[in-house]
């Protein structure tokens, strides 16, 4: 069978189920023989590394700028920071990653289609890990070099989210795409939960450079394993069982056929209300998320006088809630749709707008909280509820335009990266005296953006396939075990057909 051959028509559900039952009987006691599950597990740890490499500076910068005991030449003991950065400089350092990250969203998806999503994913994380090892010496040379290396790290990490879709296009059976992708993406929040307290411990016991050395090495180890184990498609994996390969091919059908010619109606997409509802929702969720991701350790130190070793632990709590709620919300949305309790559009609106309105309230409550426990509880609820929002806007691309979903995700994720560039310097310009009142303004801005996102999404959201969606027939023929199979559709929407899952 040629490496890029996809079967023409998916088999009947009974045939696929029979094949899958045989696969389960053969591999139920050792999950690594189910190669798609191994791909999902390694992808989980890949996104774990993606966020660990992204947030390490958020904790390290606290240790880098806090006063340390220093002995002068005359023997006098003084307390001065190793890096005496202003709030504006600190904000620029923290936001520099996103300047690179913004640029490679769409190119990453395009490159993955050319050379394979598995390779681009590995290169993106591996290069970021390698550059992370050079962060401490470059920081000691100049702040400008530190900013430059963070920009380049962002360039490499920017390809990770778009290119993983190329992996699932090959590896995920039609009825398992949502659960496999969700499990992989949840590694992002697990990486945040683990890395923030671990960064605090490393800063305390090894000094802040240890943060970058440890996570850089871990990332390179993961890259080596992924490169050796994960193949571009199940057809290229020599260790996959015949039963699992047949199951994936039969359920995958003709979706994402290589060589299919899909025309993207750019004008219609860019003037579509539902598209901009998704873009605004993605922007709003990321504004609050990136603000806390970048500044929560600093906020805990400024307002509640927590030491570096404590800020990482407490800052990780909201993201633990996010990781848990994300899984629950996804299953709940699928269940409501399968049971016919709510329409797909109403599920998206209720989950997304309900989360945003609640986040607006709890961010304001956190701003006025006078105790660390109350503040942490409110922030944990605010961040955790974002899991419901992700079950709204993040899958809405597939609802409205299945063949153009990857392009729309690239569009929305590009705009949603802007908060990572705008928010840190804005917060740095506001919080000049490190007072609770100044931090309150930062929280108010996040609350207002959540509210605006809820209004726009609630008004323009739709989960119905849009009239401008182009149904493209493919002329490409694929030789499957010597037989010529001509595909008839460039896509279908079975990935979102929850009734079959």
Automatic annotation (TrEMBL):
UniProt GO MF annotations: symporter activity
Q: Which GO terms describe its cellular component?
A: basolateral plasma membrane; lysosomal membrane; synaptic vesicle membrane
Give all residue intervals belonging to the Major facilitator superfamily (MFS) profile domain: 35-465
Membrane spanning residue stretches: 37-57, 92-113, 120-139, 145-168, 180-205, 211-230, 275-296, 316-337, 376-395, 407-427, 439-460
Q: Which UniProt keywords apply?
A: Cell membrane, Cytoplasmic vesicle, Glycoprotein, Lysosome, Membrane, Symport, Synapse, Transmembrane, Transmembrane helix, Transport
* Principal cellular location given in the protein's record: membrane
Which subcellular locations apply to this protein?
A: Basolateral cell membrane; Cytoplasmic vesicle, Secretory vesicle membrane; Cytoplasmic vesicle, Secretory vesicle, Synaptic vesicle membrane; Lysosome membrane
Topology in membrane: Multi-pass membrane protein
InterPro entries tied to this protein: MFS, MFS_dom, MFS_Na/Anion_cotransporter
Any single biological process term in GO: monoatomic anion transport
User: Which reaction equation describes what this protein catalyses?
Assistant: 2 nitrate(out) + H(+)(out) = 2 nitrate(in) + H(+)(in); D-glucuronate(out) + H(+)(out) = D-glucuronate(in) + H(+)(in); N-acetyl-L-aspartyl-L-glutamate(out) = N-acetyl-L-aspartyl-L-glutamate(in); N-acetylneuraminate(in) + H(+)(in) = N-acetylneuraminate(out) + H(+)(out)
Q: Does the keyword Iron apply?
A: no
Q: Which Pfam families match?
A: MFS_1
Its annotated function is as follows: Receptor for CM101, a polysaccharide produced by group B Streptococcus with antipathoangiogenic properties.
The name of this protein is: Sialin
Tell me which species this is from: Parnassius apollo
Species classification? Eukaryota, Metazoa, Ecdysozoa, Arthropoda, Hexapoda
């Amino acid at each position: 069978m040629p490496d890029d051959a996809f079967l023409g028509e998916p088999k009947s559900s009974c045939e696929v189920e029979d094949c899958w039952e045989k696969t389960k009987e053969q591999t139920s006691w050792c999950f690594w023989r189910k190669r798609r599950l191994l791909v999902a597990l390694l992808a989980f740890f890949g996104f774990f590394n993606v966020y660990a490499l992204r947030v390490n500076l958020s904790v390290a910068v606290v240790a880098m700028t806090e006063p340390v005991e220093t002995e002068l030449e005359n023997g006098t003991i003084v307390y001065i920071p190793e890096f005496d950065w202003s709030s504006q400089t600190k904000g620029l350092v923290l936001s520099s990653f996103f300047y690179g990250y913004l640029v490679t969203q769409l190119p990453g998806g395009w490159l993955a289609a050319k050379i394979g999503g598995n390779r681009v994913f590995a290169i993106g994380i591996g290069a970021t890990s390698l550059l992370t090892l050079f962060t401490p010496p470059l920081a000691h040379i100049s702040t400008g070099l530190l900013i430059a290396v963070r920009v380049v790290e962002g360039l490499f990490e920017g390809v990770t989210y778009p290119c993983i879709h190329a992996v699932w296009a090959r590896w995920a059976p039609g009825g398992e795409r949502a659960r496999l992708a969700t499990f992989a993406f949840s590694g992002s929040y697990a990486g945040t939960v683990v890395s923030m307290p671990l960064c605090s411990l490393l800063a305390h016991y090894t000094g802040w450079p240890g943060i970058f050395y440890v996570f850089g090495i871990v990332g390179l180890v993961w890259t080596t394993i992924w490169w050796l184990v994960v193949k571009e498609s199940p057809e290229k994996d020599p260790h996959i069982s015949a039963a699992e390969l047949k199951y994936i091919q039969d359920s995958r059908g003709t979706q994402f056929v290589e060589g299919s010619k899909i025309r993207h109606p750019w004008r219609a997409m860019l003037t579509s209300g539902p598209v901009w509802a998704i873009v605004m929702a993605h922007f709003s969720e990321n504004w609050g998320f990136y603000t806390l991701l970048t500044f929560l350790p600093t906020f805990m130190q400024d307002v509640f006088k927590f030491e570096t070793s404590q800020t990482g632990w407490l800052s990780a709590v909201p993201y633990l809630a996010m990781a848990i709620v994300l899984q629950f919300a996804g299953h709940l949305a699928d269940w409501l749709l399968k049971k016919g309790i709510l329409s797909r559009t109403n599920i998206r609106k209720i989950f997304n707008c309900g989360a945003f309105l609640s986040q607006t309230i709890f961010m304001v409550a956190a701003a006025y909280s006078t105790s660390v426990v109350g503040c942490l509880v409110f922030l944990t609820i605010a961040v955790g509820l974002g899991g419901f929002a992700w079950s709204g806007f993040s899958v809405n691309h597939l609802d409205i335009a299945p063949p153009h979903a990857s392009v729309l995700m690239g569009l929305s994720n590009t705009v949603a990266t802007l908060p990572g560039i705008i928010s840190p310097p804005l917060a740095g310009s506001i919080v000049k005296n490190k007072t609770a009142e100044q931090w309150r303004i930062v929280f108010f801005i996040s609350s207002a953006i959540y509210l605006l996102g809820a209004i726009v999404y609630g008004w323009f959201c739709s989960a119905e396939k849009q009239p401008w969606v182009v149904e493209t027939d493919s002329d490409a023929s694929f030789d499957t075990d010597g037989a010529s199979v001509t595909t008839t559709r460039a896509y279908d929407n079975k990935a979102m057909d929850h009734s079959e899952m």
